[in-house]
Structure formats: C-alpha cells, structure tokens
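PT: before anyone asks, these are the final sequences, not the draft ones from last week. 392 residues across everything. Please model them as a single complex and drop the result in this thread when it's through.
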Amino acid sequence: MRGSFTYCNPTKLYFGKNALQKLAGELEKYGPTVQLIYGGGSIKKNGIYDQVVEVLKDCGKTIVEDGGVMPNPTVEKLHEGVEIARKNNVDLLLAVGGGSCCDYAKAVSVSVHCDEEPWDKYYIRFEEPDCEIMPVGCVLTMVGTGSEMNGGAVITNHETKQKIGHVFGTDVMPKFTVLNPMFTMSLPHYQMVAGIYDIFNHICEQYFSGADDNTSDYLSEGLMRSVVHSSRIANVDPEDYEARSNLMWSATWALNTLLTKGKTTDWMVHMLGQAVGAHTDATHGMTLAAVSLPYYRYLIHTAGAACVEKFARFAKKVWDVPAEGRSGEELALAGLKAMEDWMKELGLVMNTTELGASEGMIEGIADSTIILQGGYKVLTKDEVIDILKASL
Ligand code: NZQ
Ligand code: ZN
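LR: through. Structure below.
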C-alpha cells in the first residue's frame, strides 16, 4: 500500500436480534424532540414503526413525523424535511428505513442550519458544511448502501435529471445505527437482491483500481466471497437468519470507509448507474447490475495490463476460476462470466431497457454521467455512450 490517510469511523453499531433495546441508551444523549424519518409505509406494515415509537415514547420524546421518503430521495423532499426540522426545533433525526431514509437524514442534517440552497451548495459546488450539523441516528431495514456507517447522501433532482452523491465527513456520519437482520426479512425479493448487488459492487468499485499490493484488496476478496456465499443461501431461503445477518454485516463493511483507505477507487459503475437512475428512477442496485458487465468488459478490452491482471486475480480469488490454459484476458473474462451467472441466478435486471431506458435517452444519460479518474481508464463521452448502448 502506498497511500497516506487518516482513519476514523465514529458510528456506533448495535447488531443482532435485540439491537433495538440499545436505542433508549442512545436517545438519552439528545434533546426531547425527535424527527422520525421513514419511507412509504413498509415499517408500518412490518411492525418496526410501532416498536420504535414505543421506545421513543418510553424515553419521553416528542415525535415529529417525517414519512414518505421515496426511494432515491428528491431535492423537493429534502426541502420539506428541512422545514419540518426548523419548524419543530428538532434535536435528533432518526431514520428508520433503507439507504434512502438514511441518506435523506444526512442531507437534512447539513441543511437545517444552512442559509444557502443545499442542492447548489452540496451537490453542485460540492462544498463542505460550515454550519451546525444536526445529529443523525439510523434503524436500518434494508441492506445494501452502507449508508448506516458512512457519510454518503445521494439526492435526485428530477428537474435537472441529476442524481448526485455527496460523501460528507465524519461529523455527518450517523452517531449510531441499530442493525437487526430480522428487520430486513420483510423485504421483497427484488429489493433483497438489488441490495446484494449493491454491496458486491461497492466492493468492486474499490477493488478495480491501482497496481499496488494493498491490504484492502485481500479484505475485499474475503468480503466478496462471503456476499456470494450468503446471497446464494438467502436467494433460496430468504428467512435464513445466518445468511441475512452475514449480508447485513458485509454491506456495512463494504462501504464504511475502511476499504477505500490507501487506494484510488473507480466508482464508474455507480456514476453510470446513477445517471440511468436520474432518467428512470429505477432501483439503485438494479441500475448497477444493468451497466456493470458492459463497462467491465470494455475495461478488459481497452484499459491495459494492470486492469487485465486485476480482473484475472478477481477470477481466481473470488470465483475460483482455474488459471491453467488461459491467457490473462481469457481468465479475466471467465471471471466476469462467473459473475454474470451468479447475477442471473439471483434474478438481477441485466439490461437498462428493462429499467425504462431507451436508445433515444442515451445522449441524455451520458450527459448526466459524471466521469471520474480513479479507475483503470478515464472514459470519454463517446465511450460512455458506447457502454450505455451496450447496456440497453
Ligand atoms: O419506502 P418504504 O416503504 O420503506 O419501502 C422501501 C423502498 O420501497 C423498501 N423497504 C425497505 N426496507 C424494507 C422495505 N420493504 C419491506 N421491508 C423492509 N424491511 O425497499 C425500497 C427501497 O428502499 P431504499 O431505502 O430506497 O433502498 P436502498 O437501501 O437501496 O437505498 C437506495 C438509495 O441509497 C443511495 C441510492 O442512490 C439510493 O438513492 N445510495 C447511498 C449510498 C451511501 N449512502 O453511501 C451509496 C449507494 O451506492 C447508493 O447510491
Ligand atoms: Zn451503491
């Protein structure tokens, strides 16, 4: 490893079937008014809402409701949340839901005491907060994003057709998160597998870069093997607690700031996927699944020796593809074929057409794609268009 860095992760995690019991101890640390953030109603159906409200009431908290956070939260909803927090003089933002609720809570947290327009400040100019940041806590109900232990907050602007993530620093990361795998059991299969691919791709984004010998890459290989193993069990038996609990823990470690340390990182699958999401509002993990293979195959064919070597290592270490009798490129492509077979086994969406994209939208999606520099190749806009066409 050649990089230099500071490492600190301040989020306290409570993991397991009884993790919610620890919520009361955390609530004591904050003032009386809690903004209870949740999505479209799943927590009311599966009973998690009642359990959380009971703890809040037992702790004597005033609950300010902030439901209706949509998947891929919008800038309009962000404005609404900021108004709720300001009007009620809120002390803590408690997100109960998936990555959308957690991300939204973080975006509200940096905007409540900010006089500027948050979209322009954080998502266009990428400035850091220079105001008081409201504390955030999470009770996670969907596994995938890692939002429970990171500073990421992705917001969608339908008007400008942009879906942009700002990765904030440690001050914005959740103060605590409750991780109870049982809370994820009511997820529909579609969301469960989308979340599984999101976990896997977060690891890929941090693995497919660099030519140095880096401890992170060995950690990544172990995590990827665990995700593949547990996903196969959960796909057949979604109620297998051990598999769901391993997936929950892997998701947190896949994107909680550890793997990225000391490395450059790619994140182009996410940039392509988020651009598709900005135009279709499709499920995050599915957008990633739909663009991954065309992008990775393109890299293997064009990005040079270090790239081919890494994909060949991926084939051997993650998918147990035998190296004998194969050239580096053949081995690299065989690894991707193994990944493709696994993706199909899970039932992931393998093309963007199924997500609502069409040939006529490609130019616009390419315009919405932010091109990053940390992977094996810096794409041109024409290359982005070719990859997007191949993903239809
Ligand atoms: O809205 P509700 O009713 O809660 O339903 C949700 C939603 O429809 C449902 N769901 C969640 N938990 C459930 C459940 N349904 C039944 N039982 C449960 N236990 O699942 C649907 C999707 O939820 P959502 O929170 O949107 O999914 P996810 O966790 O995948 O979050 C997606 C958002 O996170 C961003 C994505 O771009 C997207 O906006 N990301 C955040 C990242 C970060 N903070 O670092 C990184 C990621 O790469 C990602 O970009
Ligand atoms: Zn993701």
